[in-house]
Specification:
Elements (H helix, E strand, L loop, with lengths): L1 H14 L10 H25 L8 H17 L3 E7 L4 E9 L7 E7 L14 E3 L2 E3 L7 H17 L6 E7 L9 H4 L1 H8 L3 E4 L4 E3 L2 E3 L7 E10 L2 E2 L11 H16 L6 E2 L3 E5 L1 E4 L6 E4 L4 E2 L2 E9 L3 H15 L6 E11 L6 H16 L26 E4 L5 E2 L7 E3 L2 H16 L7
Parallel strand pairs: 3-6, 3-7, 7-19
Antiparallel strand pairs: 1-2, 2-6, 4-5, 5-21, 8-9, 10-17, 10-18, 11-16, 12-17, 13-17, 14-15, 20-21
Helix pairs in contact: 2-4, 2-10, 4-10
Bound molecules: zinc ion.
Length: 437
């Protein structure tokens, strides 16, 4: 009886192998296998990239990383070009274009070649600790660039890259963008104008073992408040004609910010403050100093801090409230506030959510848990912020890590196959959708 049953079942099993992932097409299954096969090659590339210092201001180092990355993309059929950024004292950007089937979704892949670790940093070499690579830029963003290349290579191998319209922009100054932004981000923004979606290969957010998708990032900017008052002997403070002095005026403004401005998704820090007979603030707002005497009503006080919000309308509304608070003035004082923009916000739009939904369909097909949207307060601004107003975007296609931007930067190598698969499947599926261009 048993023998007979086996005899009947065996040919059936051979003819119809149970798929590992029922939701994936045949070619997608091959893609998943290919991503696993490719992972050791990807880790090898990562180790070569991390061994080359590419601090943002190490122009030669950033170009050497470009020299390692460019042939990888060229080998996959991308047309590559280098956009020098000498005008803003940065290395430049590597742009690579792959033409697929006309009329299908145009994807912009974003990553960066530079790191925060300049040649003067003591953190220069990588150490392998089992499934962890401890090294400068091992995650941010060399790990991300490697996931991107490995996903594209898997697509090339199984044949799904051929149909995909992809533009890769790897900036050389993500960690300290060249000034002015209108020059240093012009090529990235130009690429976004003819893209349907932007995929940002920075680190995957993992919290308590749960992977998160990132569809929003707050803006990052700073502001300086300058208060002035009438200098006089301290014995005359608050008297008519003398007034309250610059320090009380500045304290009034800061207290009013603290008491009146708080709302969800908004933060406004005061990072530096000084007041007295004279105040000097360094142009980069990294240093402040004052002189004065305890018995002089201070004629000047300054403070500066940063300001982060989730949407353009929130920024405009809060700025108006700040300006109104600053304009009230204590007796015989004056004050003004100046805003310095750095990164615009990436607001949580329905288009961004739809991209995360596509990724979650893939997670389901891979038997992986659904990835919730990350709280935008848990993620700082990045290059995708510059294009968020033009194109739908998803952040966090790179590997998982901890300690980024510190000598404790450690990337989790076991997250590579998972991220390579997600990226390769997402790009393969997007390549079958229709472009709005
Ligand atoms: Zn970074």
């Amino acid at each position: 009886m048993m023998t007979r049953k086996f005899a009947l079942l065996a040919p059936l099993v051979l003819a119809l192998p149970t798929p590992a992932f029922a939701g994936l097409s045949g070619i997608e299954q091959t893609l998943v296998t290919q991503a696993d096969t490719d992972t050791p090659l990807a880790i090898g590339l990562l180790e070569r990239l991390v061994a080359q210092n590419s601090g943002t201001r190490n122009i030669a180092g950033v170009k050497k990383v470009r020299d390692l990355v460019e042939p990888e993309l060229a080998a996959l059929g991308f047309a590559t070009r280098w956009v020098p950024m000498d005008a803003v004292h940065r290395a430049g950007h590597l742009i690579a274009t792959h033409k697929g089937r006309p009329g299908t979704t145009r994807m912009l892949l974003i990553g960066h070649l530079d790191t925060v670790f300049e040649p003067a940093s003591p953190f220069q070499t990588a150490t392998r600790e089992g499934d962890i690579l401890h090294g400068p830029g091992a995650s941010d963003d060399k790990g991300g660039v490697v996931v991107m290349i490995a996903a594209l290579r898997a697509m090339k191998t199984v044949g799904t890259l051929a149909h995909a319209n992809i533009e890769v922009v790897l900036t050389g100054d993500e960690e300290a963008a060249g000034d002015p932004i209108s020059v240093s981000r012009a090529d990235l923004i130009e690429a976004a104008h003819h893209a349907d979606v932007a995929l940002d290969f920075e680190g995957l957010s993992v919290q308590n073992g749960q992977d998160y998708g990132s569809i929003a990032r707050r803006s990052a900017g700073s502001y300086t408040i300058t208060a002035t008052g009438k200098s006089s002997h301290s014995g005359q403070i608050f008297a008519p004609g003398v007034g309250d002095g610059a320090v009380y005026e500045l304290a009034r403004i800061i207290t009013a910010f603290h008491d009146q401005l708080p709302e969800p998704d908004l933060t406004f820090n005061i990072g530096l403050m000084a007041g007295g007979a004279t105040v000097t603030m360094a142009p980069d707002e990294a240093q402040i100093g004052a002189t004065g005497k305890t018995n002089i009503v201070p004629p000047i006080a300054m403070a500066s801090g940063d300001f982060r919000a989730l949407t353009e309308s929130q920024i405009d509304r809060v700025k108006d409230r700040m300006i109104a608070i600053v304009a009230r003035h204590l007796p015989q004082t004056d004050a003004q506030i100046v805003f310095h923009e750095a990164y615009p916000p990436m607001a949580p739009t329905p288009g961004n959510q739809a991209l995360l939904d596509r990724l979650n369909a893939i997670n389901t097909d891979l038997n992986l848990p659904v990835m919730p949207a990350l709280d935008p307060l848990k993620r700082g601004a990045g290059d995708i912020s510059f294009v968020a107003r033009y194109v739908d975007g998803l952040v966090g296609l790179g590997p998982s890590s901890r300690g980024d931007h510190t000598p404790e930067e450690r990337v989790d190598l076991s997250s590579f196959p998972r991220q390579i698969k997600r990226a390769a499947l997402l790009m393969t599926r997007l390549s079958k959708e229709t472009s709005r261009h």
